[in-house]
Amino acid sequence: MKLYHFPLSPNSRRVVAVLHHLRLDCELEAVDLSKGEQMQPDFLKLNPNHMIPTLVDGDFVLWESNAIMQYLCSKAPYTSLYSTDARVQADINRWQFWQAAHFGSACSVMIFEKVVKKFFMQAEADLQEVAKGEERFHRFAQVLEQHLKGRDWLVGNDVTLADFSVGSFLALAELAEYPMAPYSEIPRWYGNIEQLPAWISSAPPAG
Ligand SMILES: N[C@@H](CCC(=O)N[C@@H](CS)C(=O)NCC(=O)O)C(=O)O
């Protein structure tokens, strides 16, 4: 298998974390988004959305990080990351869809305005966009905060794909200046993810 990724992207880090957690053999190839490498014709043949992560497994090409994570679990003999129990699996799916549709898209506004523009475009953040992102962030962070009360993980008693999917956006909380002040459960839970060997080993190189 080969995974096209960009180390700074939360969308690809969570896939790399799952690869490490499951100890799966997979070649990693970095696609440098800051140089526009995702627009190369050969890459566009794999993913016409020009996005990482993208997985190639023989003649099978898969894009969308959450779909890739679920597929990788089918490569492991059994993993509690993605239980085979229908309700537990539905619960994990729920949080993965929620990340893709709501929480992640709120975080992405701040990542774009405060990180991508500053480091890759040498441009200023649009404060109106930041305000809209923050409002959206609070709407969904409140849901996450309430759910995490009395829990160490999003679903059940162990780490699942749900934690990697939602948690991946917290890695950029400081850099992207998410408005984290009202929340205590979210950083407590993210602290559990930060201690996972697979999360540590999937971190982008410093500097
Ligand atoms: N929904 C997609 C989002 C992937 C995504 O947004 N990738 C960004 C990097 S974080 C990308 O490749 N952007 C390059 C571009 O849009 O040209 C997933 O979960 O895989």
From TrEMBL:
Residues annotated as domain GST C-terminal: 85-207
Tell me the ranges covered by the GST N-terminal domain, including all copies: 1-80
Its GO biological process annotations read: glutathione metabolic process
Metal-binding is among the record's keywords: no
Keyword annotations for this protein, in alphabetical order, are: Transferase
Q: Source organism's superkingdom?
A: Bacteria
GO molecular function list:
glutathione transferase activity
Oligomer and partners: Homodimer.
Per its record, how is this protein called by name?
Answer: Glutathione S-transferase
From what organism does this protein derive?
Methyloglobulus morosus KoM1
